[in-house]
Design brief:
Largest sheet: 2 strands, antiparallel
CATH architecture of the largest domain: Ribbon
CATH topology of the largest domain: Tumor Necrosis Factor Receptor, subunit A, domain 2
Number of domains: 3
Strand order of the largest sheet: 1-2
Strand content: 25-35%
Oligomer: single chain
Distance between the termini: 115 Å
Structural class: mainly beta
Order of helices and strands: HEEEEEEEEEEEEEE
Length: 165
């Protein structure tokens, strides 16, 4: 009788583990039931039941969902702050986040293919006695170099030959 009980418990444990192994287009409820995921741009408004599928609703304005999921919320859209040297390159949509880019005069310090630039700094200025070797871009800071012997730069832009007058 005891060995029959152990076999039954073992079978129940195997069944539970199998029920928790949902397919890639499904998510697991707390009771182990598998439910279909909602599509991009949607969130779960009601979990599935034995006799009905998952109910989905659109992401609210200012939020997005960029992949099928079983989440009951959408992600907040990234904000591109002008004061941080960023502007909106692509607006947030229900299926994709905002893409930010560095303003003119700034370069991107932190870049992601999904959200673009998330951290920008002003281009460096070259000092007196230096010139701009490479102008700053949205991806790179200004590169400065010292003027060669016999040349000077008071503005940090170009080097000029010393002259005797």
């Amino acid at each position: 009788m005891i060995s029959g009980w152990l076999v039954f418990v073992g079978a129940a444990a195997v069944f539970t583990l199998q029920a928790r192994s949902c397919q890639t287009n499904e998510f697991t409820l707390s009771d182990g039931q598998c439910c279909p995921t909602c599509n991009e741009g949607m969130k779960v408004t009601e979990d599935c039941m034995i006799d009905s599928g998952t109910r989905c609703g659109p992401c609210e304005t200012g939020t997005f969902m960029n992949k099928p999921s079983g989440l009951k919320y959408c992600f907040p859209c990234t904000v591109c702050h002008l004061g941080d040297g960023l502007f909106v390159k692509e607006e947030c949509k229900k299926t994709s986040d905002t893409v930010c880019e560095a303003l003119t005069g700034y370069f991107c310090r932190s870049y992601s293919d999904d959200t673009g630039c998330s951290l920008a700094d002003k281009h460096s200025s070259c000092k007196s006695g230096q010139r701009i070797k490479e102008a700053g871009t949205t991806r790179n800071d200004t590169v400065c170099e010292d003027c060669r012997q016999g040349y000077f730069s008071s503005d940090g832009v170009n080097c000029t030959l010393w002259t005797n007058t």
